[in-house]
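pasting for the record
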Amino acid sequence: MGDYAALQLDTRLRRLYPTRLPIMTRCPPGEVIVRVAYAGICHTDLAILQGDFQIDCDRLVLGHEISGIVSGVGKEVNWLRIGDKVAVNPNSKCERCAVCLHEEMGAPAEASVGVERDGGWAEFCLVPQSQLHLLPSDVPLKQGLGYEMIDHNELCNKTFDLAIDCTGDAMIQQEAAHALGFGGHLLIFRSNSVKDRLCLSPFNIFTNEIKVTGSLINPYAFGKALTWASVLGHRYLDFNKLGVVSYPLKEYQEALETAKSDDAAKVVFEFDVSDVPTP
């Protein structure tokens, strides 16, 4: 039996340390062993490291933004095979509440990968089959979305129909709301602190019919996103266009420092999977 590299969090000390874990030789019936190719560093991971999130276990492998290659399947998994390229939706759904049954945004998560069970800051990750998505054959594991960059000051002279904020910065969210035209919609995907507050004009919201929507989790959008990735991939999807910086797992300290700074739009851990054949 061999072992594999992992970056584990001591949840009591809030300290990360590199370790080696035993290779999984048996896969539970409804689960899949994924050999990780890329695992992002999310601000949620940084918040966990800072102690802003309560973790109910002593040790945890973080990382919930994962793509990789199937290296083992449980006996109940009949739609994936070893070598398939997959993306991981870290959030499961309960399938019992009204939100899940109506496939609405905000479906509650159960046992999130990288938060409530070991995640992708490791060479291998065990994932329930319900949280895996088979990547289209023409979508490589290393991709992101391209977009047009404009200077912050240019926002003052433009109006927009839709503003999507993933920064979590309250001041940016506030300015985005003020830049919306009639019928505009502000979608907030994250918040940096429970203490943050927005200063919005009720008169502007009323007269311009502005909508502000928060979105915590939407497990039903994952498949649609993969379709768009397949359509846009050859022309727009590239790490360099996004400002995504990759590091090997052993350079985790530098990776975390970069993630905390403004030097990169996104930081990911990159694993060598060049020796893995795909179907």
